[in-house]
Amino acid sequence: MSFSHTEAKFLAGYILASYEYERGTTKKVIAAIPEGQGGYTPDGKSMPALKLAFHIASSELFFLNGVLSGEFKMPEKIEEPPSSAEAVLSWYDANLPEAIDKVRAMPGEALAREVDFFGMMKRPAVDFLNLMLHHSIHHRGQLSAYLRPMGAKVPGIYGPSGDSQ
Q: Can you tell me the distance from the alpha carbon of 52 to that of 125, in angstroms, rounded to the nearest whole number?
């Protein structure tokens, strides 16, 4: 698959607008993690709630930086998740807006260039914005399923939830 420079720029704008809407919803789900319940996991194979929340936030920055640089590299050091949902949200708000703005300002040529993803696939850079969006929504769904067993209310995601009616 390839895109013209104009198509790539258009798609990036569209995906980033969707992403920013979804980011607000993701923040509501993260904010709903009850204090003291960050270690909750429904199963031994599942990530604990705070680790999952931070995975969402940090992977978004990972994807944005990969699009910006035109390459994906594993971080030399994996950051430990913050100790509370509030701290995850603080990190999210401190680290994402600048990267979002930089991607939004990228020229179509850079967004259309082919980028290698760890030898698994090569796609136009803009396609990784779409992958980022789907990845975050997927993990947000996992995290929202943790909330009731942790004693929290599930915020509305694409309309009211059973807890918001």
A: 25
* Structural domain count of the chain: 1
pLDDT digits 0-9 by tens, 43-83: 999 999 999 999 999 999 999 999 999 999 888 887 888 99
139 near 58, Cβ under 8 Å?
Answer: no
Burial of 7 (0-12, 13-18, 19+ CB in 10 A): middle
Q: Domain for residue 157, yes or no? A: no
Distance separating the N- and C-terminal Cα atoms of the chain = 44
pLDDT in tens, 30-41: 999 999 999 999
| Structural domain boundaries enclosing 140 | 5-72+81-150
The model carries a pTM of 0.95
100-131 pLDDT, tens digit each: 999 999 999 999 999 999 999 999 999 999 99
- CATH assignment of the domain containing 65: 1.20.120.450
Residue 160: inside a domain: no
Q: Has residue 108 been placed in a domain?
A: yes
